[in-house]
Amino acid sequence: MAENLIKAIDRWGIETPTKIAYDYLGKTNTYAELKAYSDALASYLVELNLPKGAPVIVFGGQTFEMIAAFLGAVKAGHAYIPVDAHSPLERIEVINEIARPAACIAVEELPLELGTLPVVTPAKLAEIFATKATYEASENYVAGDDNFYIIFTSGTTGVPKGVQISHDNLVSFNNWMQTDFGLAKDGICLSQPPYSFDLSVMDLYPTLTAGRQLTVLPKETTDNFKELFAVLPKLHVSEWVSTPSFMDICLLQPTFDAKNLPELTHFFFCGEELTHKTAATLKQRFPEAKIYNTYGPTEATVAVSAVEITAEILEKYPRLPIGQAKADTTIVLIDEEGKPVEQGQSGEILIAGPSVSKGYLNNPEKTAHAFVEFDGRPAYKTGDLGQYDEAGQLLYKGRIDFQIKLHGFRIELEDVDHHLDKVSYVAQATTVPRYGKDHKVSQLIAYVVKDETKAADFESDFKLTQAIKQELLETMMSYMMPQKFIYVDSLPLTANGKIDRKSLMKEVND
Amino acid sequence: MKDTVLDILEDLTGSDEVRNDLDIDIFETGLLDSMGTVQMLLELQAQCGVDVPVSEFERTEWNTPNKIIAKVESMQ
């Protein structure tokens, strides 16, 4: 599929206008509505004469209006930056400062003002969506190397990095999803991860460009287990996209199986390690279903490698492989000097191919550090360690730095440290992951030296922890919150006088 | 039994407050999130031998150490 992705989605609005595109707990919207809403928003945005090509923030949760706003933005020639409604105010401000967007489309009420930034309020947006404006200016559509979306991830200095994904990056990913996995034409795909997390792209575009249906499982439902299991059988989804952590919740329920959910035929996992235990249990529950472990960083558009978890794979690998690169992409293992390692050796995973991003928005320094050229193709140094086995399967071996995945969320430990250091009651702090037997991070532990004066008034460490958490939530995403706070008189130091995180990691995990 | 439950909670929440205040709301106070809840159910299964039907799991029935202890005792 080489056509423009926007046209590919719009086509369904014309050919199958009454087909359901989006189902939010029974509230449905059609492809005709998706086209009409996004056309109306695009017409409105074009009239605003915003700086050409500048991105726009789209603020909200998991709703139909959000995806209509994404589509409206790209139709008007603007990449969208999805910002989750649960984001702390400071994060929204920082994203605004870095991205220098042309406008903000507030699908939900924006809880702050962003300087002079034009804001389309929820009321205005509803008014725009209600107009019957048609929009034919396909020459404005985001295309080729133009940015399609920009997703912000954790950065080591506490400043998030905006990964720019172009239309053609997304085409490369989407083509792979359409051709390699045998997805049914009339399938229904689960939409569970929030839109600010790029795993959501795995359900959004492969579904919408093929005219299939998205069925949403919002956070409010997944947080309440009783509700979750009451809702799941009613969704009739055929494809599943989630983190392995979310699957672990579902597998707690013995009736989560093929007998009770007979339509489910495909499972896709990404975002963190898929453990053998999770995959084996799932295979037992759904013996006929296809289960895929996929791998990739946001910087290379969601995922670039996959392996089907068959009985043979489960038998052969106690720790599951992350598969083989998609056809248009090369995965090379490199040494510290950037040269490919000898066959069979481990090295840093370098991804080269058409789905590799052009870099971080307005951040040439970090871009130059991680984005390179390999054999004349754009390439990204992931910071992940890998090794190929004799069957050509890529094995994941950990990180070369202090980035971790917790329940699918990517977190730079330095980022958490940075936020902790700014808390008034904290003199010094560092964060350490605790690993489970399955190689996955099970907890984030903060080692904190109190600011003796400011922290003196708390009657217990618990109260102090509550106050620290409160302050952290003003600046930091809640998924980055350490589960455990340990108060110490001092932190161990390395010979160079830096905080010795490695020794604490050893202590926690031995 | 009570001690085992409290050990599990103390380990998962990283706070001895679950021992000091048996009526503290572990969800409201942010001591436990939904992934922590999953770990709690798995630990209760492994260490106390109770199988909690997750489809019946109502947060409001499991939100304090005292309620969790009572639940586990009633299920053994």
TrEMBL record, chain B:
Sorted UniProt keywords: Cell wall biogenesis/degradation, Cytoplasm, Ligase, Phosphopantetheine, Phosphoprotein
Function description: Carrier protein involved in the D-alanylation of lipoteichoic acid (LTA). The loading of thioester-linked D-alanine onto DltC is catalyzed by D-alanine--D-alanyl carrier protein ligase DltA. The DltC-carried D-alanyl group is further transferred to cell membrane phosphatidylglycerol (PG) by forming an ester bond, probably catalyzed by DltD. D-alanylation of LTA plays an important role in modulating the properties of the cell wall in Gram-positive bacteria, influencing the net charge of the cell wall.
Domain Carrier: 1-76
GO molecular function, one term: D-alanyl carrier activity
Name by which UniProt lists this protein: D-alanyl carrier protein
InterPro entries registered for this protein in UniProt: ACP-like_sf (IPR036736), DltC (IPR003230), PP-bd_ACP (IPR009081)
PTM notes: 4'-phosphopantetheine is transferred from CoA to a specific serine of apo-DCP.
A GO cellular-component term linked to this record: cytoplasm
Source organism superkingdom: Bacteria
Family as reported in the entry's similarity comment: Belongs to the DltC family.
Associated pathway: Cell wall biogenesis; lipoteichoic acid biosynthesis
PROSITE patterns on file: CARRIER
GO BP term, example: cell wall organization
Stored Pfam families: PP-binding (PF00550)
Subcellular location: Cytoplasm
Residue positions, PTM O-(pantetheine 4'-phosphoryl)serine: S34
